[in-house]
Fold each of these.
Amino acid sequence: MGWQEKYYSRFYYNKAGYVGGTEEFFELCERCVPRGSRILEIGAGPSNRTSRFLATIGEVHGLDPDPDVRSNEAIKSATVLQGSHFPLADGSFDSCVSDYVVEHVASGADHLRNVERVLVPGGVYVFRTVNRMHYVGLLASVTPHRFHKLVANRARRLPAGAHDPYPTAYAMNTKAAIRKAAAAARLEVESIRLVEKEPSYGRFSRVAFLAMMVYERVVNAHSAFANFRANLFVVLRKPVAGTTEAMKQER
C-alpha cells in the first residue's frame, strides 16, 4: 500500500460517518430523479460509474460530443452532439443528469435552454461541477489547456492511458452564474450546495496532500467559507405550466 492509500484511509475513508463525494452526488440523484423515468445523461462518455448508477433508477440515454459514447453499455441509446444544439425531441425526458460536465460548456444559458426544452414540465436537472472559486477551478480557468493536459492526470495519479482532460470554459461555475443562466432558460433553482471532500489532486506529493487537507478542514469548518469549496451540487427544475404564476399570486 502506497502513502496515498494510507493517507486517504487514515484521514478520510476510515472516519466514522464518512461519505465520499460521488456517493453523496448519487444520493442527491436518487432523491430527485423519479424511479422508472427517462433520464438523459449529458456528457455520458464511454462506460462510467455514473451511467451504471443511473441505470438502476431509470432508462438512461446518453448525449456526448465524443463518439465513444456509443460504447457505453449502461445506456439504452447514444447521441453524438455536434455543436451546442441537443438533437433531441422537445419534452422527451423526465430528468437530466450531468457529472463534471458543466465546466466544459461554453454558454451556460444556451446549455440550460437545451435542457429546459428536452425536459417535461416538472422535470429536473441534477448536476455536479467544479466551483470556479476553488483553487482547482481558479488555476484551471487562468491556464491554457496544454497545461491541464500536462498536469491534471499526473496530479491525480491516474493510470497510463487515461483520457486527457477535456477543454474547460467555466462559464457557469459559480452560484451567481448558475442562477443567471437558469433565469435566462426559465428553470427554477431548487438547490445549490457547495461540497468539499478529500483532496483528489493531492496524490502526487505528501506536502501537497497535507496542505490541501488543511484547506478542506478550513472551508468545511464554517458556512462563511462555503463559497470556496470544491464542487457545486445543483438541482434545477422546469416549472409546470401555471405553477410559477400561481406562486406569485399566493405571495
Note: Residues 244-251 have pLDDT under 50 and may be disordered.
Amino acid sequence: MVTPEAKRRVVGFWRAGHSISERRACRLLNLCRASCRYRRRPDRNVQLRSRLRVLAEQRRRFGYRRLQVLLEREGVAVNHKRVRRLYREEGLSLRQRRGRRRYRGVRVVPARPVRVNQRWSMDFMSDALADGRRFRVLNVVDDFSREHLAAEPGRSLTGRHVVAVLDRVARQRGYPEAIVSDNGPEFCSRVVDAWAHQHGVQLRFIRPGKPVENAYVESLNGRCRDECLNEHLFVSIDEARLELERWRLDYNGTRPHSSLGNLTPEEFAQQHRVSHPVSPELVRLSVA
C-alpha cells in the first residue's frame, strides 16, 4: 500500500523535473489531489492507548470487551469498536489456548438458582509449587451470584478441611440449601455427610464423568487457573494462599461478569438482597 508521504514525494519529483503544477502532476499520475495534500493528524487516543496498555498488563487474560467495562468504570466514555481497534493495534490480542476435542453428548442442565445461598458448588483443582510438589485448591462458589466464597490451598485436604472451610464461609453469610459436588472421597466422607445433616444442607452429587453438571464451579476453576495459577509461580503454600485470596477478592469486587450484565458478583448480590431482603429469623436459623 502506497502511503500519502510516498505519493507526495512522487508528485514533488514530477513537478521539479518537469516544471508542472500539482494539478497536472496528479492528473498524469492518476492520483487524487486530496491524498497528496493529506497531513497526518495527531493521535487523539494517546491517553486511551496508554491506559489500555496498563489495564491489559494488569489483566493479562482479559479481552477488549472486559477491558472496556473497566474503562467505563473509570469514567472513560469510549465505543467498543474503538477499544477493539486500539487493542489490536497495540498487539494486546489474547493467545487462544486450544483444548482437545471432546465428545459432545446430551447435556443435563440443572435448574437455575433464583436467590443467594440457594445452592453452592465446590470442587478441587490441582497445581504444583516451584519445587514440583503438588497441591490442591478447594473452590466454593454461590451458583446464583457467582461469588467466589472460598479458595483454600493445601497439600492434603480431607473431609475435615472441607467442613472447616464451609463453616468459615457460613459464619459470614449463612448456610446454603444445597451443595453440588462430584463424587470425590472428600465430599462423600462421613464427616461431610454428618455436617450436612446437622445444618440441614442437601448434598447433590453429579454423575461420574459429567463435570458439565457442575458447570458453575468448573467455569470458576477455568478462570482461576487462567488468571491466577498460570500467571504465578508459588514457592510455598502460604504464598499460594495469599495470592489466591487476593485474586478471590478481586474476582468478587472488581472483575466484571458478562453473565451478570457486567456487574461484579458483590454488586449483583447486593442488588438482589436490596430487592429481596432476607428475614432476620432466616438469618438467625442459618447461623445457629
Note: Residues 61 and 227 are 6 Å apart (CA to CA).
